[in-house]
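Q: Sequence in, structure out?
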Amino acid sequence: MNSNMGNMTGDEVAAFFRAVVEDLGANLSLEFTPASPSIYLDGKVFFCLNDLNGYKWRVKERILHEIAHHFEKGKRQHGPNFYEPYIWLLGKYMALVEGEVKA
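A: Exactly. Output:
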């Protein structure tokens, strides 16, 4: 995965997810599902297979969006408690390419 254009395979999504989660030291798992939308529930990201059809940057954003819910404090919603970890994750991992994690 050396650019953010084109589609990602399930294996690329799983590798991106693993790289981020390992770097964060987070106890999260990923499961692909035909159900829509992609969601986070109790330590697991359920990633909708239809979300694989977007550009790599869009797929990465979706993964990071769901991971951000893990770090959200308080009620799970798209408010200030969500956006702080979400924006931090985007800044740290959005440009991540295979085998590279920013310090």
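The chain is about 45% helix and 15% strand.
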